[in-house]
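User: Can you help me understand a structure? I only have the sequence.
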Amino acid sequence: IMLAETGGIPASAAMVYTVLCSLSLASHAKTSLTDPGAIPQSAVPPEEVRKAMGRDNTLSMCSQCQTFKPLLSHHCRICNRCVSRMDHHCPWMNNCVGAANLKHFCLFLAYTWICTAYALTLLGWNYFFCSNAECEFTLVLTQLVRVMTVLGSGAFLFTSSMIMNVTYGLLTGIGTIDRMKKKATDTMLDSEEEPIPLKDVFGIAGYHTWPFPVDPVFEDFDRVIGYSTPQRLLREQMKEDS
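Assistant: Let's start by predicting it. Here is the structure, written out as tokens:
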């Protein structure tokens, strides 16, 4: 904004950057405040899983929570809870990243990456193509630009690494925690996980909802989240009977 006021960059460029920053901050807030998919005490396997298990198979239980533990879920020692399809606990979000808030985390990474790339492009353009005194930075702005360049470069590299990490998880179905465990035991080649469909991350409410940090609507909530509850199972059974 200060650069736009002094003529260092066009006002329209500052407006675009402000919108991108707002979307990034909103995505950060949604990731931090949204339940990542904590598994309640009343959790039970979904109906499809129960039928596939049969009567002889025993349920996978968490030794800490003493609750049903769905496939790909993990117990977070920091949050002291099990999280469905947990990828990792993010200290920058002060929350876990799981099945229910993965969309918001992806949007935060994407918008932060775009913000930093856009800012560095604007600063570089001004530095190399400034041809008159009106677009030159003042002493104060020069120091702010230097700080912004350092922060932007660091954020760009960090978010680039995280985007590749999340993309790998979506393409392989192997989250960060599972990948670290498989590498430690040298069982990466034995993986049987399947890629995660984008509709299981961004929902089915429509493509126009994907770029915004609103909660996704899943086609089959129990399948995506990995568990059900007695109340939901009863409701589904009543629908089938009717």
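Now, to help you interpret it: The CA atoms of residues 173 and 193 lie 5 Å apart. The radius of gyration is 23 Å. Let me know which part you'd like to focus on.
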